[in-house]
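Researcher: I'm preparing a figure for a lab meeting and need a structural model of a single chain. I don't have an experimental structure, so a prediction will have to do for now. The sequence is pasted below. Please return the structure as tokens so I can convert it later.
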Amino acid sequence: MTTFEPTEQARAAAVRAAVLAGIARRRTLFASAWNGRALLVIADLLDTVALSFYEEEPTRPDGIPDSAWLALADAETAATDTPGTGFPADFGQYVTHAMDRAALAIPARFDLTGCGLAEDDAQLVAALDILHGHLASAATEAVAQALLEAVFALHDKRADLAQLARG
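Model: Understood. Here is the structure written out token by token.
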């Protein structure tokens, strides 16, 4: 009987999922009850993603286990349903990027015309684009993990801007 051993990319994806789970848990300290609950759900789902990458053989052509794929989709749904978490709707790309090295997409700019925040959002989007470039070319996973912290700080700021615009 052979024992499954995750690839280097799968281990990197697992660590990225764990880093994002940690970010979600830290954000619960300052979140509303509604957003805090969603953040805990996201963190728990990301834990499932991390464990799946470590413990399960890939079942999809892209090297991702089915349970990781499903848990990541559920976590993205929770983020979409609760924008106050500061997690963008497509944040799963930061985990799967370790597997496929696909270009990281920047979420669409918010419609902030008329409220004086459009320039702030433009600056945050530009900073995200720069960090995405650094993340794509990170020499080590330790560097990538540090960059993820910075990327998600910017996503949180963008979520705050959107909340301010909504009033």
